[in-house]
Write a structure and sequence with these properties.
With 115 residues, the chain is α+β, with helices and mostly antiparallel strands. The protein is built from three helices and five strands, in the order E-H-H-E-E-E-E-H. It has a single domain, classed as 2-Layer Sandwich (YaeB-like fold). 30% of the residues lie in helices and 25% in strands. A hairpin with an 8-residue loop joins strand 2 and strand 3. The longest helix has 14 residues.
């Protein structure tokens, strides 16, 4: 499986990496899990519907971050990605840390890149 990311994701990732240094390894672990999945979505991942686009968009809600000890998969880190089954490709779109409530993903960004 091929993994890519858009520039906005890279900037958000680098900002979060300043606070949680294990994030790089944690993302690699997620990639390994995604490679092993038949359709590209592990448990704790939901498909985002209602976007009006054909591209499959998913949000990872259960993401483990080693630097957030004691939280397990409830770290609060959210990752949004586009899945292209015919190309066997995943493109990371957005990563953020939910403060108190789980905000919705940046639907405008998704529509900008995938319509």
């Amino acid at each position: 499986m091929q993994f890519t990311s858009i520039n906005e994701f890279n900037m958000e990732f680098n900002n979060l990496l300043k606070k949680w240094q294990s994030l790089k390894d944690d993302l690699e672990r997620l990639k390994n899990v995604l490679q092993q999945m038949a359709r590209g979505y592990p448990p704790g991942t939901v498909r985002i519907s209602g976007l009006g686009i054909k591209t499959e968009i998913y949000k990872v809600k259960h993401f483990r971050c080693k630097d957030m000890k004691g939280k397990g998969s409830h770290s609060g880190i959210r990752i949004v990605y586009a899945y292209f089954p015919e190309q066997d490709k995943i493109e990371f779109v957005e990563i953020y840390y939910k403060e108190k409530d789980d905000r919705d993903c940046d639907k405008e960004r998704i529509k900008k890149f995938y319509t």
